[in-house]
Amino acid sequence: MNDRYRFLCAVLADLGHCGRWVCAVIERTSEYASLLAFLGLFAVNFIFAWIAAVYVTERFFVSDAQRKLNEQHVRWVNSLVVPARS
Questions:
Q1: Which string of DSSP letters, residue by residue, matches the chain?
Q2: Which one of 12, 17, 32, 75 is most buried, by most CB atoms within 10 A?
Q3: What is the pTM of this model?
Q4: CA distance 9 to 35
Q5: Cα separations (Å) of 5 from 16, 67, 70, 80?
């Protein structure tokens, strides 16, 4: 595996760790603020992980033939949709 992908995995794992640390610090002052901070950091971490998973899947698990079929399918679907005119 390339070093870039190892770095990406380490950053995603560290985001979760940092989120727990930040929430623990906030929890000392307010439990409710800690919950909101956790939910926000969880959402950010989830979005980054989703983007990384899509990138890795498309890069390593989708063949050129599958990519070509997908592009043809997208063109076919787009040909069925009539653009709206204002």
A1: --HHHHHHHHHHHHHHHHHHHHHHHHHTT-HHHHHHHHHHHHHHHHHHHHHHHHHHHHHHT--HHHHHHHHHHHHHHHHHSPPP--
A2: 12
A3: 0.61
A4: 25
A5: 17, 22, 25, 38
Q: The tokens of 77 are what?
A: 């679907």
Query: Do 31 and 46 form a contact (C-beta atoms < 8 A)?
Result: no
CA–CA separation, 49 vs 15, rounded Å?
A: 10
Q: Band of the pLDDT at 68, cuts 50, 70, 90?
A: very high
**Spatial separation of the C-alpha atoms in residues 47 and 85, rounded to whole Å:** 34
